[in-house]
Amino acid sequence: MNAIEAKDTYADKIKKTNEKLEKLNYRLEDMVVERTKELTTSYEQLKKEIRERQRADKEKKGLEERLARSQKMEALGLLAGGVAHDLNNVLSGIVSYPDLILMDLNEEDPLREPVETIKDSGHKAAAIVQDLLTLARRGVTNTQVLDFNNDIISEYLRSPEHEKLRTYYPHIQIDTHLEAELMNIKGSPVHLKKTLMNLVSNAAESQPSGGKVAIYTRNQYIDSPVKGYDHVLEGDYIVLKIEDNGAGIAQEDLNRIFEPFYTKKIMGRSGTGLGMAVVWGTVQDHHGYIQVESTEGKGTAIELYFPITREGAKKETAHMPIESYKGSGELILVVDDVKEQRKIATHILTKLGYTATSAASGEEAIEYIKENPVDMIVLDMIMDPGIDGLDTYKEIIKITSGQKAIIASGFAENERVTEAQRLGAGQYIKKPYTLEKIGLAIKHELSK
Ligand SMILES: Nc1ncnc2c1ncn2[C@@H]1O[C@H](COP(=O)(O)OP(=O)(O)OP(=O)(O)O)[C@@H](O)[C@H]1O
Ligand SMILES: [Mg+2]
Predict the structure, then answer these.
(1) CATH code for the domain defined by 319-446
(2) Which of 96, 167, 396, 432 has its CA 20 to 30 A from that of 113?
């Protein structure tokens, strides 16, 4: 091999090696990119897991707190109830005898005053014992179908107890904002009135120099659990809200306000500390929930959630004869992730003369529509897990364009509802709905 040939071969080798090197370099770069990607992904995954764990920890802590609170309430209730039972027997002597003694004393007798005082104290003690017994009698309340606005609120506002409160607090203005078509609940009027009275009293007492107490009611459908003071589960509720602009409750006291005998008031006319305990017990008995929001110096809002009943809904048919919105066998598909909601809706629709069927998710509804044409869809907006109402509707109109539908949701009408309507969905009805409301909405859409 001569020098030139050798040079060529070297050059060749160098070139090849260079090429190899370059390739290797590229591969290395690729590998680095890939590895970086993997690292980023696992870093993101790790971050997500940490976030999830933190969230779960927080939830666990909240759950433990709520559990501890309800166990404590349970134990205190039992104790209070036991004491009350014994005390009640002892008290009857003190409550009944003064009247008999007074009958035998003439008007000027110096014993009259002390005996009157004994009688008064006896009655006060008896009232306290009654509250304690309420805590003890938990779960066996006498229930009936109630219209909270009329049977509880109006009744309370007309009661002598309320009159008395008004004379103690003449500078308190009491406003009511009641939902006109409030759904019915099942409950014990005596306990619910007492509950309302205790909340209004506290609200008034929190602003001794005057202010406002507002009483609200509303229908409320809870689509996904609300995590607040209590953990409100999905379902149809009526909500009673009592709001004041009073002193508010300090953060550290919030966990204790429902305990029997917990009070910050000076013993006297009020301040036994049983008011909120009775509220708590009553709400538990009615399978309800409590939310508390309070800011020191600003005021307090307490919300009670009571599950609704569809029993004895006499009012519903009062507006329009049912014939005017009855169906004639049209097939209606109810899409809702909550079993109870599907049951209620299909039940109502069947009663209205439609043929009703249901799907538990948007995905399931889409599969159903592919095989079976339906006249109308009653669509829930928020479904979990899975796609929401809007995305479901988008897919469905790809299969049957112009598909008739109405939207039923617990949330306020939002842009996703408006978007579904822009695409062709019909009326939006708020859950919980009455027979009449859904009946009219469907009739209206079908006749378009
Ligand atoms: N609306 C409110 N604003 C400020 N504090 C409140 C309010 N409601 C309750 N509280 C606090 O919770 C405590 C417990 O209330 P609860 O009604 O059980 O007892 P009370 O009002 O002190 O006595 P009772 O109701 O037996 O006369 C009160 O002492 C008060 O500190
Ligand atoms: Mg009170």
Answers:
(1) 3.40.50.2300
(2) 167
